[in-house]
From TrEMBL:
<feature type="domain" description="Pyrrolo-quinoline quinone repeat">
    <location>
        <begin position="230"/>
        <end position="406"/>
    </location>
</feature>
<feature type="region of interest" description="Disordered">
    <location>
        <begin position="27"/>
        <end position="50"/>
    </location>
</feature>
<dbReference type="InterPro" id="IPR015943">
    <property type="entry name" value="WD40/YVTN_repeat-like_dom_sf"/>
</dbReference>
<dbReference type="Pfam" id="PF13360">
    <property type="entry name" value="PQQ_2"/>
</dbReference>
<dbReference type="InterPro" id="IPR018391">
    <property type="entry name" value="PQQ_b-propeller_rpt"/>
</dbReference>
<dbReference type="Pfam" id="PF01011">
    <property type="entry name" value="PQQ"/>
</dbReference>
<feature type="domain" description="Pyrrolo-quinoline quinone repeat">
    <location>
        <begin position="77"/>
        <end position="126"/>
    </location>
</feature>
<dbReference type="InterPro" id="IPR011047">
    <property type="entry name" value="Quinoprotein_ADH-like_sf"/>
</dbReference>
<dbReference type="InterPro" id="IPR002372">
    <property type="entry name" value="PQQ_rpt_dom"/>
</dbReference>
<protein>
    <submittedName>
        <fullName>Outer membrane protein assembly factor BamB, contains PQQ-like beta-propeller repeat</fullName>
    </submittedName>
</protein>
Length: 409
């Protein structure tokens, strides 16, 4: 609903982000005037300027959109599979033809992305459970209550730092002097060269509150992050809270990592409410209340925002929040959609899908065998992380210890 069609909520500004059936339903469109957003908060494209995949969410803005990549657009087959010693629950990254991924077996692997051959592996002595980040020839990894950096060419450990209060989430490299990571309470800044850590802000000083988005969305030095039932804009240099929004439904935001693009921040809650917020002011731009639950992080590409909802994926028009389409994909698509310019790729339990970005029409689907779906670590999800798309191929990790590369048949 456009804000002109409802009573606008007030936002708090303070000084201190195998083939299966699949149908697509055309959504309604709106010819309302475009909202003028001259706020200067444009989305960052760090890490997505080439066709590689260098961090969680593709870029610092966590858009899930790789504009320079193209993936399989016809039925696919597995090209190669590599098995580690334990389960995988993170998205790999690919830089200059090398795939990097960590495993619960406490090892970190570098593979030739073309053929799956192991280039090297290193014993980290800690479970590498999160998507790593790459910058300037180095890999940054979250372990159990610690951060590590290794040399991307050799796997040699450069430094390790155990100063976080709980397990850190996804490391992000903002520039050559600044890395950012969250845990269950704080945003931390670290030096990419040394690993030296310092707190940016304690988001939840109340001991009865806990929960911070796994990855903030970062643009123009501001981190947009969900914590408990709030969305905040944090100045990464000063640690000041530029604005904060408290969800009037009382539902939590912190299970979703927001995305920021073209001056809007997108986030949803578990009660099915999805919001677009002005990145500079915190003013509500529009909200969509027809979802059952917002199950995944949003992705943003070419004028649309995509997210998982119960048993479908929804596409909304970014200026109005009107639904463009929805596509049935089975129970709870709870990992971020992966977007290229033409196609949306989805990992839903043990099914992979490719759908047209403009219409939601199915292009292809693939079902893993039941051996992938065996219970592990309290879950029977085959895939717990988004696929990545590089050079016409798709790469995905599964909970039965494997990394798979898919190509068009």
């Amino acid at each position: 609903m456009k804000r002109s069609e409802r009573t606008r909520r007030q936002w708090l500004t303070t000084c201190v982000a195998t083939t299966v059936g699949l149908s697509a339903l055309a959504g309604c469109t709106d010819n309302s005037d475009e909202t003028d957003r001259e706020n200067g908060a444009e989305s960052s494209t760090n890490g997505s300027l080439d066709a590689g995949w260098r961090m969680y969410g593709v870029d610092l803005a966590n858009t899930g959109h790789q504009s320079n990549a193209s993936g399989p657009t016809e039925d696919v087959d597995v090209d190669w599979t590599f098995e580690t010693g334990d389960s995988l629950a993170a998205t790999p990254i690919i830089v200059d033809g090398i795939l990097y991924v960590g495993s619960h077996d406490e090892h970190f692997y570098a593979l030739d992305a073309e053929n799956g051959d192991e280039e090297w592996s290193v014993d980290l002595g800690t479970s590498a459970r999160r998507t790593p980040a790459y910058a300037d020839g180095n890999i940054y990894i979250s372990g159990s209550r610690e951060l590590l950096s290794i040399d991307a060419e050799t796997g040699e450990i450069r430094w390790r730092e155990d100063g976080t209060d709980s397990n850190p989430y996804y490391p992000l490299i903002v520039d050559e002097e600044t890395g950012i990571v969250t845990d269950d309470e704080y945003i931390w800044r670290f030096d990419p060269k040394t690993g030296s850590l310092e707190q940016v802000i304690d988001l939840l000083p109340d001991p009865f509150e806990m929960g911070v988005s796994g990855a903030p969305a970062i643009a123009d030095g501001i981190a947009y992050v969900g914590y408990e039932d709030r969305l905040g804009a944090i100045d990464l240099e000063t640690g000041e809270r530029e604005w904060e929004f408290e969800n009037e439904t009382g539902e939590i935001f912190h299970q979703i990592s927001p995305a920021v693009a073209d001056g809007l921040v997108y986030i949803g809650d578990v009660d099915g409410n999805f919001y677009a917020v002005d990145a500079e002011s915190g003013d509500l731009e529009w909200e969509y209340n027809e979802a059952t639950e917002v199950a995944s992080n949003p992705s943003v590409a070419d004028g649309m925002v995509f997210f998982g909802d119960s048993d479908r994926v929804v596409a909304l028009e970014v200026d109005s929040g009107n639904k463009e389409w929805e596509a049935d994909v089975g129970p709870t698509p709870d990992v971020q959609p992966t977007a290229t310019n033409e196609t949306i790729y989805l990992a839903v339990h043990r099914f992979l899908y490719a759908v047209e970005a403009k219409t939601g029409n199915k292009i292809w689907s693939h079902e893993f065998g039941s051996h992938v779906d065996e219970p592990r670590i309290g879950t029977n999800y085959a895939m717990q992380a988004p696929p990545i798309i590089v050079d016409g191929s798709l790469y995905v990790t599964t909970s039965n210890n494997k990394i798979h590369k898919f190509k068009t048949r």
